[in-house]
Amino acid sequence: MKSNIVIFWILTTYLVVIAAVYTVWNIIAHGYVEWAGSTAILLSGGLTGFIASYLMLVQRKQGGVLIEDREDSDIDDGDPELGEFSPWSWWPLVLAFGAAIVVLGLCVGFNFWLSFLTLPIVLVGIVGWVYEYYRGNFAR
User: Fold this and answer.
1) Which of 52, 55, 43, 54 is nearest to 18 (CA)?
2) Nearest to 98 by CA among 132, 126, 57, 69
3) Is the pTM of this model over 0.85?
């Protein structure tokens, strides 16, 4: 976490300096401040400063050295158990197909009928994925 804090503070400093350079450059080149770019760059620096401050507070609250910061740690030391996944499951594919068609119907010419007709595929994909361990060979 210590390296993340350093990286975010470097990024904050960089963005604040770039915002000042950008603003001065626009004043010299055009004679006025270009507010959209100057504000966006400065607020990006503020955001990275918030993240760095938050990480500093979290590190202080934890009170110890994380596995990622130790010199003698291996990659496997910080590898948590993420859960149980089914590599044979087809339900994520069904859900992705249904969600893609629903979004496509909303985006292309506002075809609400396409989204309306494809919404049951999304619901079947969600129900199938949630309840795949309750029937068939893998029932509990």
Assistant:
1) 43
2) 126
3) no
